[in-house]
Design goal:
The complex is a heterotrimer. By secondary structure, chain A is α+β, with helices and mostly antiparallel strands. Chain A is 23% helix and 18% strand. Chain B is an all-alpha fold. In chain B, a hairpin with a 2-residue loop joins strand 1 and strand 2. By secondary structure, chain C is mainly alpha-helical. Chain C folds into 3 domains: 158 residues; 123 residues, no CATH class; 98 residues, Cytochrome Bc1 Complex, Chain D, domain 2 (Orthogonal Bundle), CATH 1.10.760.10. Chain C is built from 19 helices and 7 strands. In chain C, a hairpin with a 2-residue loop joins strand 4 and strand 5. In chain C, helix 2 crosses helix 6, helix 4 packs across helix 6 and helix 9 crosses helix 13. Chain C is globular, with a radius of gyration of 23 Å. Classes of the chains: A alpha+beta, B mainly alpha, C mainly alpha. Chains A and B meet through strand 4, helix 12, helix 13 and strand 19 of A and helix 5, helix 6 and helix 7 of B.
């Protein structure tokens, strides 16, 4: 077997893997990065105008995971047989250099500080009985103040556009009144409002909410980041989610970090390298490196390394831990074990509005991360007492560029014909006048929502698929319905001729066929208690301390915000701890 | 004259001339043409599926990695389950079409004594409506509704994708909607609130919509 | 260490020449490496995908096709047998070790002003640090009589300065030592005039230094279809509106607020100028800014906002305007100002206003990638439009950008398509 050696091996080339690689290189470690998909460079693959292709991009999934080689199985309940996720639907993991960080939209939040200690905050405010039976409500074990420098660093690397509210405790702008104080402004000013965002801003303000510009990793002007990587400005072309940005304005590992890494002789990227397992010693207390399959030669290759970083997509990280025997697998029947525990998602529903025929929303104009949002019903920003649920949702107009194939499946709305006579009229009359408002909310963790290995189906390499056991729960459905009901006053204020509110239905099951969001989380969560978390507060495995697992897998519950900003901050936070503490004395950073 | 002109002429000739399907048999082709037109008929709003060469688009899609099922997880065992857990048949899209058309034709002959293409428009609509709404089993466990949804999705793709893939002939699908296509630059328009976007559609290969 | 020892061993084994002299100091080799970059030896002697300095770069000259030779220290196929004196004579005087004359594609008239010490350093770098390679470039296909080397000797006698003369020319007095350094770099190792100074019918540069008159760096003849622009202070077609920092940024990274590199200049920056010190880059910029406009009257470029206003309204009635909006405006903006340094401006860009539109036409055909540089690691691609636009359309859109925003280039609207 071929053997490669490096100080550190990094699995995955998305944001988590790229940030850790850059940080470890700055610390002087030699780094091998493994990516199972193809190499991707925006200057090659993303060039104008070939990348402006809805069929090839969002519909045929150019940048997404190749399910033919490996997928997951899904069931709603523990007593069901899980079936393979054979074609992409509800969520879209990435593949190839950049990972999901290449095809994301660009919404770049920090965190609502209350969400980091949600369990403590809910109990302090509403009492222990407020937490329903079967809900695994947990704290992250880290505070906003500790993470703040790393949020700041990530924004500067991403070239994030936004409007601050408070800097060092002083109110400085018209940003989100619910957002915590910052140490610095955004590196770029907020993007312009598209028409529908402007309408939403005005209406939300008039009904007494607190609208703000979404923080967006879509550059509002030319920008050079601390790594020397350059971005062009977003021109609202609308090809963000599912595309590499030909304007180099949507932040991606490919545009913002990889250019610097690729010039660095101490860094080596190996693409088409499918990692099979982390190699552990017999006691399963120390990792020796990883073994991957070279997809071109079909030969197994060992990478020996003193430090192993799992920086793949959320559930791929959990899958690798389960396949390798890192940490104790979660057993839902006994409610014991931690790897696979607290698998979470988000609740997202879309409401629609239609403007009069002389008002053109021009939905094709858009940007993935931009828009206007309100946080009045997110996190702990409102009183949950009367409602009896935990969690919340930001609400926003995030017009990311509605293209015709995607729009055609919705056509003229729920009541309009889907095809045949009348379809075209309804669609043509509404396409340029419609728009959407999303409630993009939290999702709590439950005892019966988890990840483990599937007993039946295998991937192309003979390894068991990961199994998801997941369904919506009453708490989250009620949360979604409440928040969506709070959209109605905005709808009435907008000047829309018609609107439809989209919400989860009581008892509704999770449907794998229809896209919702790719914001999966948990499964290997961080925390202070090794019996309820797989990772300590520095994202270090409690059980195998030379393995760090970076990603949204660390979230104990699904938050209302988009996860990428939090993932990037946690990546820099973990990297900082590795650089300043771990490398001097490798071992557990927190005694277990 | 550069190679470009020859290339363009070749595309134009193929775009406007008769099309010989590469995947579908003549009988299947008749079904596809009729069913697409029924789903997306020519009317006062704009061209129909035939005008937009949607059937040609679908035929070409059959010979892509997607059509061959290479983008899907197709490993056994194949087991039935609740619809919300997604597609579970062993059929790649091209096989789904082959099976679905055969089943649909059998259904039409049995119920109406004719091939789908030979039915009058109202009956065609009735047949497709029953496929859409009812759990009729066409063949090999293929529910009619699943075949219907695939056909509808691909018809809409053919009407609205870049002409590069053989449909959306002369960008007329986009013109109908007022979608500008592959220009992908709205810096001047992002803050013009309310009016229609005035510029016509353009395709990846530079083709522009007539009169726009 | 291995890199140092390896060529020595080869030289000993294959050439049988015992190196009595000690291996030069690391500092001297480093100095040589810096000079090799300042002199951009790679631009003409390295091909992408092959080892450095193995030659094979084609030059299509009026006299035929010439391939640059392998200048690695390989004794058979490179210059491994050259002594330092022979090396210096080739670089500065255009005479090969066998006494034959080099073709004037080799800018020895410029290199002539490098000092003996610099020759020593350059020789040390090439001889002791470059990896030898047995790569054999394709044979040149020069047409008779110039396929014979002796007419080159006559050319050399007629047009090339002797090193002593050349050095004296560069030792003219400057008030500012930085300008003096810049003059030396530009006129000497940088050999900027090789492309940017027009050549006479007999192929010599019409001026070798600023002192030779206004032809110096006034814009050269096409090189591989690219037209090297004037580096003098013409307001519209030269560097008249480029500040010192713009020039420095351009030479360091290929990108500036005023324009981005493409064509032959990309490699000159990639292999050469990006490695120069800040001090040397500023010296070059200061010197270039002392060269007065060659062309009179020197009309000023004044931005004209009418086109931007029309395009923002959706008025694309001007010829080429719709093509511009469909193909170019995404990156270069309807106001022509681009998004520098990522996407360069077309408004007021000297390349756009150049007398000849050839570079623009070629750029639309071939596209271009601005590669990663050490201080600017991002690569950017302008796609080729050869499959998207016809010759007529290319002519229309090129005429458009040359005409609007105050560009008003001389022949705008008069271009004849090649169809």
């Amino acid at each position: 077997m071929d053997i490669l050696r490096a100080d550190a091996v990094v699995v995955g080339s998305g944001w988590a893997g790229s940030i850790l690689s850059k940080e470890l290189r700055e610390a002087g470690l030699s780094v091998i990065m493994l990516e199972r998909g193809p190499d991707r460079s925006t200057a090659v693959e993303g060039a104008y105008p070939d990348s402006i292709d809805e069929l090839r991009g969002a519909i045929r999934h150019r940048l997404y995971q190749d399910l033919s080689q490996t997928t997951v199985t899904i069931r709603n309940r523990m007593d069901q047989r899980a079936l393979p996720y054979r074609s992409l639907g509800a969520f879209l993991p990435g593949e190839g250099v950049g990972g999901a960080g290449l095809h994301w939209s660009g919404v770049h939040f920090r965190v609502a500080p209350d969400d980091l200690a949600l369990r403590s905050n809910v109990i302090a405010r509403y009492g222990r009985k407020f937490v329903p039976e079967g809900m695994h409500l947990q704290d992250y074990g880290v505070t906003y103040e500790e993470l703040e420098p790393f949020f700041d660093k990530a924004e500067k690397v991403f070239g994030t556009s936004g409007e601050p509210y408070r800097i060092n405790g002083k109110i400085v702008g018209k940003g989100n009144v619910f957002s915590p104080s910052r140490s610095d402004a955004f590196p770029l000013p907020a993007l312009k409002d598209v028409y529908t965002a402007y309408l939403f801003r005005g209406a939300a303000e008039r009904v007494g909410y607190h609208p703000y510009s979404l923080p967006a990793a879509n550059a509002s002007g030319p920008y050079t980041n601390p790594y020397g990587a350059q971005m062009g400005p977003c021109n609202f072309c609308g090809y963000c989610s599912g595309y590499d940005c030909y304007m180099y304005s949507k932040a991606s590992p490919n545009v913002n970090i990889q250019p610097a890494l690729r010039q660095d002789a101490g860094f080596r990227l190996i693409s088409r390298a499918h990692v099979l397992r982390v190699d552990l010693d017999s006691a399963k207390k120390h990792a020796r490196g990883v073994t991957y399959l070279d997809l071109d030669t079909q030969r197994e290759v060992k990478v020996e390394a003193a430090l192993v970083i799992l920086g793949a997509f959320q559930f791929h990280n959990v899958h690798l831990m389960l396949l390798s025997g890192i940490g104790r697998p979660y057993d839902a029947a006994k409610n014991e074990g931690v790897v696979g525990r607290n698998f979470v998602y988000q609740t997202i529903t879309t409401s629609h509005a239609w403007m009069p025929q002389d008002r053109f929303t021009n939905q094709f104009i858009g940007t993935g991360g931009g828009g206007v949002a309100i946080d009045d019903f997110n996190s702990m920003n409102f009183d949950h007492g009367p409602h009896g649920f935990i969690g919340g949702s930001p609400v926003w107009v995030n017009q990311a560029g509605v293209k015709p194939i995607a729009a055609s499946s919705f056509g003229g709305g729920k009541d309009a014909p889907r095809w045949g006579k009348g379809f075209k009229r309804a669609f043509a009359d509404t396409y340029r006048h419609a728009f959407a408002i999303d409630a993009h909310g939290s999702n709590m963790a439950y005892r019966d929502a988890y990840l483990d290995l599937d007993p039946t189906w295998k991937d192309a390499y003979g390894q068991p698929l990961l199994r998801m056991t997941y369904d919506w729960h009453d708490n989250d459905i009620r949360m979604n319905r409440y928040v969506v009901s709070r959209i109605e006053p905005i709808m009435k204020e907008l000047g829309a001729t018609k609107y439809e509110l989209g919400m989860l239905q009581p008892g509704q099951s999770f449907d794998t066929r229809v896209y919702k969001t790719t914001h999966l989380g948990g499964g290997a969560v961080m925390g202070d208690d090794p019996t309820t978390s797989a990772l300590n507060r520095y994202l270090q495995s409690w059980d195998v301390p030379n393995v760090f697992v970076i990603g949204s897998n660390a979230f104990p519950q699904g938050m209302g915000y988009n996860p990428t900003g939090m993932v990037a901050a946690l990546a820099y936070w973990a990297a900082h701890q590795i650089r300043t503490t771990y490398l001097k004395a490798p071992g557990p950073l927190v005694p277990s | 004259m550069g190679g470009l002109e020859g290339w363009r002429q070749a595309i134009a000739a193929e775009t406007d001339g008769p099309y010989t399907p590469r995947f579908f048999t003549p009988e299947e082709w008749r079904f596809i043409e009729a069913a697409c037109e029924c789903l997306f008929p020519r009317d006062e709003v704009g061209p129909g599926a035939r005008d937009l060469a949607v059937p040609r688009f679908i035929d070409r899609q059959m010979d892509t990695p997607w059509g061959r099922g290479a983008l899907w997880y197709m490993m056994a065992p194949f087991e039935a389950g609740p619809p919300n857990l997604g597609y579970q048949l062993p059929l790649a899209p091209r096989d789904l079409y082959r099976t679905g058309i055969a089943g649909a034709e059998r259904y039409c002959v049995k119920a109406h004594g004719k091939s789908f293409a030979d039915l009058d428009t109202d009956t065609q609509v009735a047949v497709l409506t029953s496929f859409e709404k009812n759990p009729i089993d066409l063949d090999e466990g293929l529910p009619a509704s699943l075949f219907f949804e695939q056909l509808l999705a691909n018809t809409l793709e053919g009407a609205f994708s870049d002409p590069l893939y053989g449909g959306n002939r002369h960008l007329e699908g986009w013109v109908m909607l007022g979608f500008p296509g592959a220009r992908a630059d709205f810096m001047d328009w992002v803050d013009q609130y309310g009016p229609a976007y005035p510029l016509g559609s353009v395709a990846i290969n530079g083709e522009t919509a007539k009169g726009a | 260490m291995r890199r140092l020892a390896f060529p020595c061993v080869l030289t000993l084994m294959f050439a049988g020449i015992a190196h009595a002299e000690p291996v030069p100091s690391a500092a001297l080799i480093e100095e040589g490496r810096y000079l090799a970059r300042a002199a951009d030896c790679s631009a003409c002697h390295s091909v992408e995908g092959k080892a450095a300095y193995t030659g094979g770069v084609p030059f299509d000259l009026p006299i035929g096709r010439l391939y640059s030779p392998n200048i690695t220290p390989d004794p058979q196929h490179g210059i491994g047998r050259y002594t330092e004196q022979q090396f210096a004579r080739a670089v500065r005087e255009g005479v090969r070790a066998d006494g034959a004359s080099l073709y004037p594609a080799m800018p020895y008239p410029s290199y002539a002003r490098m000092s003996d010490h610099e020759m020593q350093a350059l020789y040390a770098w090439f001889h002791y640090s470059v990896t030898p390679s047995s790569e054999v470039p394709p044979a040149s296909t020069m047409r008779w009589p110039l396929s014979m080397r002796w007419p080159m000797t006559v050319w050399r006698w007629m047009f090339a300065p002797k090193p002593m003369q050349a050095r004296q020319m560069s030792e003219r007095s400057f008030d500012d030592p930085d300008v003096a350094r810049g003059a030396y770099l530009v006129e000497g190792p940088g050999h900027c005039g090789a492309c940017h100074t027009p050549r006479a019918i007999t192929l010599q540069e019409k001026a070798l230094t600023a002192r030779d008159g206004p032809a110096y760096l006034a814009g050269g003849d096409a090189v591989d279809g690219w037209i090297p622009p004037s580096l003098r202070q013409e307001n519209r077609t030269g560097l008249g509106r480029w500040g010192e920092d713009d020039i420095v940024s351009f030479l360091r990274s290929g990108r500036a607020q005023t324009g981005s590199a493409f064509g032959g200049m990309t490699n000159a920056i990639l292999h050469g100028t990006q490695y120069l010190t800040d001090h040397d880059l500023h010296a070059i910029a200061r010197y270039l800014r002392t060269l007065p406009p060659a062309r009179q009257p020197d009309l000023k470029w004044i931005y004209d906002a009418r086109t931007a206003v029309a395009l923002r309204k959706g008025d694309v009635s001007a010829r080429g305007a719709r093509l511009y909006v469909d193909n170019c405006a995404a990156c270069h903006r309807t106001d022509g100002r681009g998004y520098p340094p990522v996407f360069p401006p077309l408004a007021g860009n000297p390349v756009v206003m150049s007398e000849k539109p050839d570079s623009l036409i070629k750029l639309l055909h071939t596209g271009a990638t601005l590669p990663a540089m050490q201080t600017a690691p991002s690569a950017f691609t302008m796609p080729s439009f050869a499959k998207r636009l016809s010759e007529r359309e290319i002519a229309d859109v090129v005429s458009f950008v040359r005409d609007v925003w105050g560009n008003g280039a001389v022949d705008a609207g008069k271009m004849v398509p090649k169809e």
